[in-house]
Every structure is written in C-alpha cells, then in structure tokens.
From TrEMBL, chain B:
This is Aspartyl/glutamyl-tRNA(Asn/Gln) amidotransferase subunit C. Its EC number is 6.3.5.-. GO terms for molecular function: ATP binding; glutaminyl-tRNA synthase (glutamine-hydrolyzing) activity; transferase activity. It catalyses: L-aspartyl-tRNA(Asn) + L-glutamine + ATP + H2O = L-asparaginyl-tRNA(Asn) + L-glutamate + ADP + phosphate + 2 H(+); L-glutamyl-tRNA(Gln) + L-glutamine + ATP + H2O = L-glutaminyl-tRNA(Gln) + L-glutamate + ADP + phosphate + H(+). It is an enzyme of class 6 (ligase). Belongs to the GatC family. HAMAP family: GatC. Keywords: ATP-binding, Ligase, Nucleotide-binding, Protein biosynthesis, Transferase. Pfam families: GatC. Heterotrimer of A, B and C subunits. GO terms for biological process: glutaminyl-tRNAGln biosynthesis via transamidation; regulation of translational fidelity; translation. Allows the formation of correctly charged Asn-tRNA(Asn) or Gln-tRNA(Gln) through the transamidation of misacylated Asp-tRNA(Asn) or Glu-tRNA(Gln) in organisms which lack either or both of asparaginyl-tRNA or glutaminyl-tRNA synthetases. The reaction takes place in the presence of glutamine and ATP through an activated phospho-Asp-tRNA(Asn) or phospho-Glu-tRNA(Gln). InterPro entries: Asp/Glu-ADT_sf_sub_c, GatC.
Amino acid sequence: MSLIRKTAAELGASIAAGEVSAVEVAQAHLDRMAEVEPKVKAFLHVDQETTLEQARAVDARLRAGERLGPLAGVPIAHKDIFATRDMPTTAASKILEGWRPPYDATVTARLREAGLVILGKTNLDEFAMGSSTENSAFHATHNPWDLTRIPGGSSGGSSAAVAAYEAPLSTGTDTGGSIRQPASVTGIVGMKPTYGGSSRYGLIAFASSLDTPGPFARNVLDAALLHEAFSGYDPMDSTSIDAPVPSVVEAARNPDVAGLRIGVVKEFAGDGYQPGVLARYHEAVQLLESLGAKVVEISCPSFTTALPAYYLIAPSECSSNLARFDAMRYGLRVGDDGTRSAEEVMALTRAAGFGPEVKRRIMLGTYALSSGYYDAYYGQAQKVRTVISREFEAAFQQVDVLVSPTTPTTAFPIGERADDPMAMYLADLCTIPSNLSGNAAMSVPCGLADEDGLPVGLQIMAPVLADDRCYRVGAAVEQALEARWGAGLLSKAPEL
Amino acid sequence: MSAITRDEVAHLARLSRLALTDDELDHYATQLDAIIESVAKVAEVAAEDVPPSSHALPLTNVFRADEVRQSLTPDQALAGAPAVEDDRFRVPRILGEEA
C-alpha cells in the first residue's frame, strides 16, 4: 500500500521501527500535494524545504535513540490560525498577509515536541468565521468528493487535505462547529475537545469563550492519538483546565458500547434536514442499538435557540477580539500618507483588510454590546447559554452520550449560500449547543446520502471532560460500518 | 418595520473603525436587519430568574506568581510592525493639529 494511504498510527509505527524514514513519508505527501493541490487548494502556505528539514530532524532524533511519541515523523496539515514561527500565519485575512509570528502557539509547539512534521498551513474562512471556507481572502477550497462543492468550514482546508490524502492528520479549531461540520461533509473524523482541554495560546482569537483546537483524521484512533499529542493543561492559557487528558486513545481501542445509554436529540431532525442525512443518521442509531447500546429519545427544547444565541455571543466577542487589528503593531497599514490621523488610518486599514463576513460580525457584535441593546441581545443570549448548559446537564443525568446529525445537509455547491448569511449559519445548527456549554463532541462518518452520494456525519456529544466517550462510540460506529463496507468511507470517494 | 436603520449601521461602522462606502452601508443595512430580526428569538427563551453565563467553565480569576520571565526581545516584538523608528512602533499622528 502506498505511504499516503496508510493511517497515522501505521506510519508512526513504521517510522519508529526504521522501516521507512520520516523524510520518505514527508516526500510522499509532498508529491501527493503537488499532484492534487491544483484541484483541491487546501493549503495557503507550503514550503517543501521547511517540511523536509523537520523530517530530517525527526529522523536524526530517532537515530540518536530519542524516544518520541507514537506520531513521530507523521506529517500533519496545520490550520493557518495557529501561530508558527517558521511559516506565515494569516487567518486567511488580508490584514495579516505575510505576517510571521515571533512565537509558536502551544498546539504548534506540542506538535513539534511529538515529532510531527508540518506540511504547511491550511485554508479557512477568514478568522474562522464561516461554514464553507469561501470566506478566505485568498481562494476557495474544493471538496475532494465533488470539486464543485464546499469542504465545510471554517477548517475546510484541513478537512479537504485529509480527505484528499494530502495529509493523514490535520488540526482545526471549533467555535460553532468548525471542526465537526467540515469533517462531516468530507467523510472524515473531527473532534471538538472539551473547552479548556486544548490550549488557545497562540491561536488567533475569534470568540474566546468558544474557540477550541481539535484534531482531524481519517479514522477514530488517529484522531485520538493527535488529540492526546497536543491537549492538556497549559499555564499560558488562563482558561486551560488543570486536569489529566481523558484517556481517548484507550477508548478508541475499546469500541464497546454494550449497556451504554445513548440519547437521541429529539429537536435535531425533521424539517430542514436532508432526507439522505436523516436516513444514514437513523441507521447509525439502529446500529448502535444492535451493538448493545440502550437508545432513548431526549428532548432539549432550548437547543433550537442556540443558533440565535451564538450569533450574538460569537460576534460580540469577535468585535472585541478583532479590535487588536489597529494597523499599529503588526499586519496591514493602509493610507498612512503623513496627513491622516491614526484613527483614519485604522478605519481605512480595517475596511481594506477585513472581508465582508468579518465586517458583518464586527458590526453585529458592536450592536449587541451597545448600550440600550445590551440587555435585549447579549445579556439575553448569555441567559440562553445557561439554559442550554442546564439542558445538557439534565440530559447527561439520563444518558452517557447524546447523538444527532452533525449538520442538516451534505456539502452544498460553492457559491450557493455565499450571499445569504442566514442560510450559511444554518450549517452549524446541531453543533453550536456543545460550544455554548463547552462539552466534548465528535463527528464520525456514517455513510453517503442517497440523493447525492455525499458523506454524512454522526455527531456524538459527551459531558465535559468525558471526551473518551466520543471516541468509544465513534470507534464502535466506525468498526461496524467498515465491517459492512469492507473498508472506510473514503474508499468510496472518486479518484482525484 | 426594520430592526436597524442605515444611519445606525453607519454609526456602528464608525464605532468599529471601518471606513465603509455608501454601497457597502446599503448592503450591510439590509443584511444586518435580517440577521438581527432572526437572532431576536433569544428573547423568547430565558426567563427573568436565569443567571447569564459568559463562559462554559466555572472559573473566576486565574493568577500566577508575579515573577520576571523571559519574553520577546525588542527586535522580535517589532519584526511585524508596519513602521519602526528608534526601536519603537511608529504610528500616524494621534492628536489633533492644534495639539
């Protein structure tokens, strides 16, 4: 089997055993990128020499007898919202075009310590605001299943790179579904860890109470290995949880759901959901039941209000966070001709440097936080957040995990929702509640919709710091479906 | 009745330090109106007695020891600056002409 088709776990084991070098593995993926990138366009920045240098360093460390983790030498695609000292970091925004951070994000540093080889920086919706990666200031990314369709967003470059076999692993960030929805529409595994379980230090901030780094992979075990490699307490992030990382790798290796109580979220089905998505979702629930899980229906009536609450909370935090882009200390500066004031230069720079969705959200957040509207909008949204967390707590008294479709439809055509923000926002309908309450949630592939032959994802939600339950259930679904299909879902994807 | 007027959007743009064109203001006024109308649904849910959550974690303040630690050098801190003068960020004038 060619190197690019192997799992991350297999590659790590082969490299550790000396059967193949990290350089050979990196080169195989760079060759694949050269072949398919013109079609997929998953990356914003690729530098072969920097990649090979990292791979050579890992080979040297291994030859010197250094004991590295199970992913040493395995290549990874890194979302371009994490600071990287040796590569540009742009958040897919013109305002940061060409910027090189003076430090590494904690996630980046931990990838390096574990010996992962960074292949490049992946495309995203500008500042992670979007569900299609069309909001990138540089270019759109194409879904490897159908190049005319979106790869999801905001982490669409990372999902497309893994689905297109350009990388076995990638990083993402999930603020309202930006890992789970792209994973769902590209037929791969994506995990949003418990908020505070993975560090935000060096992650360009969008909505700080929601932003959560997490892994993408083509299978559940690989996702768990990556989750374990970069998660855990970080004193540099004041909202980092000082607790051991849940035993996600062990859970991924023990896909046993016998006796597990699974709650089907009543509100996430019906009108607005694509029939093919619902069909695969219901089959996945039946599958879990046949594996010994106890399935019950759970009503969480306020979950349908999560979307409007999110579109007040996230823009409010964004309007504050993005105030740092002031044209003074780093990034773009426009119109500084010696006559204009700092304030005029700031306003010209921000108008030129931010794209339409970012401007919309900054103004929406400024509105929601302004005096006279604060109580009715931001204040009220914060109360909804409390109600949603209470509904999760009540649900987890009765069941071990909750399930739903990850997103109401399969990948939509590029351009279809680009001018209709409200239609775009609906892609995050099912994923947002877990961001508001901070609990763990995963998307795992559960088949192809009959109408269009495109991937469908099952969302598995678990309590705070019970991330391992997502991996246990995800691995059970994966194992049973692979037995039925004879291979993983991506084996059904067309050749690029 | 619209939830937000074009004049209000122009005011928001000024507060947000976004120098928008007239066409952009028209465009955003229409879109923001639709979005605000939709998100107003939050008023239907939470009752008076529900406390607000700003955050998912039950954290208050997190402190560390007040010790000098290594940080960026001046060269590193200035490396991405649009303009630099004498080891400092050079910025456009921040005071009015009469100052």
